[in-house]
Amino acid sequence: MANVSVAAEWQLLYNRYYRKPELYPMRWKHVDLARHKVAAAPFGGPVAVIRDDSKIVQLHAESALRKLRLFNSAGHPLADAVWRHPGGRLIGMSWTDDLTLVCVVQDGTIYRYDLHAQLVEPNISMGKECFEQNVADCVFWGNGVVCITEQNQLFCIPDFRNPKPVPLADPMIEEPPRCIAVIEPQYTMSGNVEVLLGVADDPVVLVVEEDGVQRLGEGLLRGPLQKMVVSRDGKWLASFTHDGRLLVTTSDLTGIIIERECESSLPPEQIAWCGMDAVLLYWDDMLLMMGPDGDPVHYFYDEPIILIPECDGVRILSNTSMEFLQRVPDSTVSIFTIGSTSPAALLYDALDHFDRRSAKADENLRLIKPSLPEAVEACVDASGHEFDVSRQRTLLRAASYGQAFCSNFQRDRIQEMCKILRVLNAVRSPEIGIPLSIQQYKLLSPSVLIGRLINAHRHLLALRISEYLGMNQEVVIMHWACSKITASLSIPDATLLDILLDKLKLCKGISYAAVAAHADKNGRRKLAAMLVDHEPRSSKQVPLLLSIGEEDTALMKATESGDIDLVYLVLFHIWQKRQSLEFFGTIQARPLARDLFITYARCYKHEYLKDFFLSTGQLQDVAFLLWKESWEFVKNPMASKGSPLHGPRIKLIEKAQSLFAETKEHVFESKAAEEHAKLLRIQHELEVTTKQAIFVDSSISDTIRTCIVLGNHRAAMRVKTEFKVSEKRWYWLKVFALATIKDWVALEKFSKEKRPPIGYRPFVEACIEADEKAEAIKYIPKLADPRERAESYARIGLVKEAADAASQAKDGELLGRLKLTFAQNAAASSIFDTLRDRLSFPGAS
Amino acid sequence: MAQIPNLDNAPINLISIREQSQKELINILKNEHGVELRHLSADHIQTDCTKVVYLVRSQPNLMRHICSNIHHDESKGLQREYHVYFVPRRTVVCEKVLEEEKLHNMVTIGEYPLYIVPMDEDVLSFELDLAYKECQVDGDTSSLWHIAKAIHKLEFSFGVIPNLRAKGKASVRVADILNRMQAEEPVNSSDFLNIKNGSIELDASIMGLQQEGKKTKVPLNSSDKLFKEIRDLNFEVVVQILRQKATSMKQDYTEMTTTSQSVSELKDFVKKLNSLPEITRHINLAQHLTTFTSKPSFMGQLDMEHTIVESQSYDICFDYIEELIHKQEPLTTVLRLLILFSVTNSGLPKKHFDYLRRELLHSYGFEHITTLNNLEKAGLFKKQESRSNWLTIKRALQLVVEDTDTANPNDISYVFSGYAPLSIRLIQHAIRSGWRPVEEILKLLPGPHLETKRGAFSNSPSFDSLSGVSTGIAKVPDGRRALVLVVFVGGVTFAEISALRFLCSQEGMAYDLIIATTKIVNGQTLVETFMEKLG
């Protein structure tokens, strides 16, 4: 049976099975790990290789210059670069989470490379102390590094995205530590990195942090440690003691969990966690796997290996192959263990029978009928854990075969697994070389995977995967477009534009402005301008147009958008960049920009606004500004009072007047300014003669009223004549002024001066408003219109008189209204009713 | 009575809009204890607080006050933390002012994206008090962008508005900006509530200068049931209705004391008693209002407004206004009539124009030259350059209706006792049959008009077939009426709102109406935005 051969490759450690399938034979040639420093990124990431300059090696047919070479996990070359950096020996190198290769050299300089072996500027420095003391060793984690100097001082960069070196507390040790490990900041109480040091002749672990050093494990360790490694979750510490024991303790060294004798007291070269259940120790040609109990497993290698820890196992890289050592998943165990009678195993077996047209298939199925869903689930799950495509297929076929007899199984489970496997198989192909296990894939997330693919310039695959998984393709297309621009220096703008547009249009809402910005950064301004024209979002388009010097287009687009903020953005940009006259010319041609400029300048750039109006020949607007300024004198008492004739103020108004006079459309304004100046002069004189500061800045009408109220009729007359005040207005003003001071005698006299040009209504109204009924009665009879008479009588409450007048007017509607006025008065109502009735039948009256 | 309007019965979920605004405001003021509230002015802030938060409209002129505040603190050696929150968003020009004053490093800048304030269950305001003046006089069209943005935000909550009609230059521009926004940042139509057939009317308030004499200080809105009943009535009728209510209550009371009542009857009576304070308050209010509405000046003015609108007796109107000026009646009153007079005549003959302007400057002071200039720029009070087509418009749209029964109205003209507001008449046509039948009349009115269909996927070619689906007037599946959002650019009066509500309540009306406006205005407040004293 097929099952037997699968399980035959497993090793039993304590009560668990482990397997070690080969992921790839390495495609590289002439790489001897023993002669090289190697950095391999987790999650099936790339491998960086460079000749180790701390070892004396024989050069075969190769250049003396060292080369940094990058490969994918299958040993497929990605890129290389000649290493000619100063700063001494390479101390350590590692990949960060975003797959930047960081290389620490002796003087504390950190060189960074991207996936294409391009140096990422700028270089980082670990600081002056490292430079002076030399870096002796370093330990990396996800996005950080800790360096120890030759004088045993510690420095760390907690996050390469913000590369600032931070000194740690002085561990006060004489000799270099035997071993170093770190607990990542995300797993410590303080949120800062903790560095664990195993020191010579001291049976403790020193924990170094930014603000102090602690001694842990005293009395627990029975001797110094030679090698340490912290588990992936930061909780456990595996260490190798001076006397050849493997210790697993809590990472705060408060208790020993496991203590096992090893076969050698020589410290291993490498030590690593395999998942959370086992620890790997590697000596020269032997790899030892220790579990919590039972006999360790031995693997023998006749070539050097590198252990690459993953979340669910360890990848083992040798000169010739990449293997993955992992605990066999439970579902796989249940199907393939020799002699297994689990439902899943029987289902798998049933498929085999079915394929061979054996009736045993049915028998098997019937046997497991009640637990069929579990069996199907186990087959689906196991298929996910397989690297072998044909075995994936067989397991999925078994699942699907079982599902057909199973009513209550989640239908999309198989489909979902197929999807995942198709993605995994695609990225596992040796050309791509990302051998993710399903567990790693889930932890990494599809979007990060796509990010890695586009970083590796695998755009097409990234696009297909994101399309397949229903994810937003914008990231991929955007990155592709930018990479394309960078890589296409020799393609002419128009051709490249077509190539880009062809792909950009695949993605609705993509930022053309961002692509254009990239083109501009690459020195292709013309291409940028062509691209940005396709950007529908003005808020993105306009700033970019400004940055590539297309101000006029920017102004046009901003204006079209209707977004005033964008227009101002362009406006201020041009204002700052251009000479005044040129600036004025530009905005004069664009009404919206011009109006906004005026609005802003009216508030904050008064003088400059005058320049603008003068330059564009809008003299009347200058005049308005001057006229407005003339009032500023009022607000500033120092300037106004005390100055004879209010000189400066009047001068400004007169200047405004003459500017208005320049254009024939503004004759009215010119005349008004002239009158205003004249009025101010007269008012000032009046203030001097009356010694009362109550005239300036009142209107002509008010000035007349004030004069009359003060009894200065001559002055009132003078103002009237000076400003040619009409008789109509004069009568209203004088009547109201006299009523204000209740000079009823003068009022009567005035009424008799001559027949008033607007009749006696002003007199009546003034008296009524002053509540002087007796005075009002004098004038009401003189009103010509009976309707007015009726209403006036009504207003002072004379019902009978009102009714009489109304009946004279023969106006039914008026009567009705008057009746309403007297609604509370029953007697009055009846009078109006009678009158109205009479009006409705004119013949009867 | 609730202080803010109850929005439970709104045709769309306005509560969410309000809650969002509330949440954002609380975020701005979070963790602050003992907050003191001040109005922004040039006066310096007298307080012990070490943190000052300015919540300010993003108008450049307001920045001056903030600058002067901070400079004053600096000169006194006061150390304070300054936060400026711009409503509704930060703008280049405001930050420029801070930068020029070298203050931009001292203030923390934030945004309070308040675009819409629900004023009632069917009224939204953008609270852009100066929109009309800014557009017409200053050429600053910020408010149009704001309106489009606000509508676009509504679309994000309630779905794309498929039919759009606009009249007037500003409205058409808003529609244009709105369409751009939709192209830039499309609203997907898939998962929305139930606006599927809404259409939108945009209308520049060309004639919104009249209104009833309603002026209130007590918060009055739909949460007050009685107010809801009487607010949209003609002022002549309100008193009668209130009297009826009071009388029936009194009658109930008499019955109560004379005859024996069952418990349930008693209960009903007590229920009615609960509304007593409301009635009392409204009677008081109505009484107060009557003192204005029965004044000869109010009646005279109303008469004059009618005379002007009827446009038959030019000289009478001219003399009346001239006399108001001579009597130095309040300037806003004069300008209101003057504007109505000028607009209906499409300006005044040059001789009269200059004469009245001179009389105005003489009577009220030369500082009002700017006000006159503003009105002229806005085309509200200007020299006659062409023949007026008001009579044609008035006749074609039946704006003046004889024999209006204000108590039992059958036409929107009841709101002005016989004059149907032009804006509402247009909306009436737009809702009933679209622009096409009234195209000729629309051409007589200032500004272009527009009618367009929009779809959520309009810019994605593959979905084109979908966008044409919603045609005709149809009821939304759940039986609610489809929605029409009526947007007034420049402002709307209470009377116009009343007229719209009247339309909405008519039998056979296929839509619910929601009104949005830059500001609820009246003749007075609208004129005031144009008044600018030089002094």
Automatic annotation (TrEMBL), chain A:
Major location category of this protein: membrane
GO biological process, one term: endosomal transport
Keywords tagged on the record: Membrane, Vacuole
MF GO annotations: actin binding
Positions of the Vps16 C-terminal domain: 510-823
Domain (Vps16 N-terminal): residue spans on this chain: 8-413
Topological category with respect to the lipid bilayer: Peripheral membrane protein
UniProt-annotated location(s): Vacuole membrane
Cellular component per GO, a single term: HOPS complex
Protein family: Belongs to the VPS16 family.
Function statement: Required for vacuole biogenesis and vacuole enlargment in dividing and expanding cells. Involved in the docking or fusion of prevacuolar vesicles.
Protein name: Protein VACUOLELESS1
From TrEMBL, chain B:
Matching SUPFAM superfamilies: Sec1/munc18-like (SM) proteins
Gene3D superfamilies the UniProt entry points to: 1.25.40.850, 3.40.50.1910, 3.40.50.2060, Syntaxin Binding Protein 1, Chain A, domain 2
GO process terms (BP): vesicle-mediated transport
InterPro entries: Sec-1-like_dom1, Sec-1-like_dom3a, Sec1-like, Sec1-like_dom2, Sec1-like_sf, VPS33_dom3b
Lineage: superkingdom: Eukaryota
Name of one Pfam family that matches: Sec1
Family note: Belongs to the STXBP/unc-18/SEC1 family.
Protein name as catalogued: Vacuolar protein-sorting-associated protein
Species per Swiss-Prot/TrEMBL record: Arachis hypogaea (Peanut)
